[in-house]
Amino acid sequence: MLIKGRTGLGAQRWLSLGLFSFQPSELAKIAMIVLLARYFSDKKVKAGFGTKDMILPAILLLIPVGLILKQPDLGTALLLSFIFLMIILLAGIRLKTVFTTLFVCILTIPFIAHFFWGMLKGYQRNRILAFFDPEMDPQGIGYHIIQSKIAIGSGGLFGKGLLQGTQNKLKFIPEKHTDFIFSVFAEEWGFIGAFILLTIYLVLMLWGITIAYKAKDREGALLAAGVVCMISFYLIVNVGMTAGIMPVVGIPLPLMSYGGTSIITTMVALGLLINVKMRRLLLFY
What we know:
By secondary structure, the protein is mainly alpha-helical. The protein contains ten helices and three strands. The radius of gyration is 20 Å and the shape is globular.
């Protein structure tokens, strides 16, 4: 938080309300989806959205992303950026605008990379370095990735059984109830259990895509697509970082990781999907 908030794990991102605390940045994800869906559904264009049409959505993105990076919370900032990118692509952006943006980004990559690297905190830089070579400091910056990969690999085909994972019980896995919950699950239930879990997520994603495709109006389609993008980003990044194929960031596994605000946000997102589906079945609304 910019002015006041509880600090945890190096980030000031929680507001305490006595009996409980919550993360305002979690609510920003739903707000971003709803705002972008409404903006692009109300604005009518014939040949796709141009650069001028992107000014207001870009402002809507940069304000929360700037505040979230100040906390710092790189994972949530990347998620909001991903949602923004996917929704504007699905809304219909002109090819000329896409190519112009890509050309400018390519030219400014050195400057953006230097600025981005300079604004990162020390532990965030270490996470990126550990992603490329976790063995460079196995007891330090590479510890998270190494222990997570050991846990996933030691689960074998059928796993060690519920609450029988040694990496979990001996507390080798850091943040085992939040960011690295997939490592715990894979160790206890093995490849078969992890495969079934990922299949369930795939079914959920396909259900959301079907709702978006069959939505009765443009706003409903963009809402559903935004929710699918959000949950897909959660899933891909969380599983990827626990398997060592992505840098470690603070991204929970939907409906699995412990966290009050995160679970509420996911349930609200799923509620939006159900609402879009119900509206499609109504004759008038």
